[in-house]
Amino acid sequence: MRKILVAVSMVPLLALGACGKSEECTPELAQKKTEELTKAIQELVTKDPTKGATALTKMQEVTTKYANADEKEACKAIDELLASIKE
Questions:
Q1: pLDDT at position 17, please?
Q2: How many CB atoms lie within 10 A of CB 52?
Q3: Is 76 exposed, middle or buried (0-12, 13-18, 19+ CB in 10 A)?
Q4: pTM to 2 decimals?
Q5: Which range is the signal sequence, renumbered to this chain (predicted)?
Q6: How far apart are CA 65 and CA 69, in angstroms?
Q7: 54-69 as b/e, with b when 16 or more CB fall inside 10 Å?
């Protein structure tokens, strides 16, 4: 459970990395996407702990990789991770 809380607390860092001047990925949009991602991961952990752990690992990788990246790339990474979780 602690791992989940730590991972979920890192999501805002990804949102900060996704924020910028781009009209396609505004700070508001990045915040909305990270909230949706957080909710999806929490639900997945509840339903399937094994898949939830995998999703947490991927989220941590994405958070680290895109924290200082181009906002378009960060938003795309959030979208891809969210899509893979919802499959």
A1: 46
A2: 20
A3: middle
A4: 0.66
A5: 1-20
A6: 7
A7: ebbebbbebbeebeeb
